[in-house]
TrEMBL record:
Family matches, as Pfam families: HIT (PF01230)
Lineage top rank: taxon: Bacteria
Organism name: Clostridium pasteurianum DSM 525 = ATCC 6013
Motif Histidine triad motif: positions: 98-102
Stretches assigned to coiled coil: none
HIT domain mapped to chain residues: 5-114
Active-site residues, as the UniProt record annotates them: H100
Family matches, as InterPro entries: Histidine_triad_CS, Histidine_triad_HIT, HIT-like, HIT-like_sf
GO MF, any single term: catalytic activity
Name of the protein in its database record: HIT family protein
Amino acid sequence: MEDCIFCKILKGEIPCDKVYEDDRVLSFKDINPEAPVHVLIIPKKHISSINELKEDDEKLIGYIYTVAGKIAKQLGISEKGYRIVSNCGEDGGQTVGHIHFHFLAGRKLNWPPG
Ligand code: AMP
Ligand code: ZN
């Protein structure tokens, strides 16, 4: 956890371009955007990946989708559409070991993802 880059962002040790914050969740712009809108939504609780989720976390993870809807509204893209993605493990393309949800929008996104 001490080496977790997203925990460092949560503690203010690394800066971020904040999009949304409340008591449970932080959202900030991805440093390496893959779309015109690319923000990350993370729980404030350190959970390393989907593999580590416990039943107690179900509300929190569901809540992240509610926050995604709020962010879409805030950014004015609810109608245009967007994609929420969470990568898990090496094959899934996860590079940061703190569960997070990519919010991608602002262009027609390819399907299936590569
Ligand atoms: P993933 O590869 O699915 O684990 O996603 C991790 C994401 O975190 C990547 O899209 C990175 O560009 C992004 N990222 C890494 N470090 C930072 C940072 N300091 N601020 C914002 N985004 C970051
Ligand atoms: Zn963390």
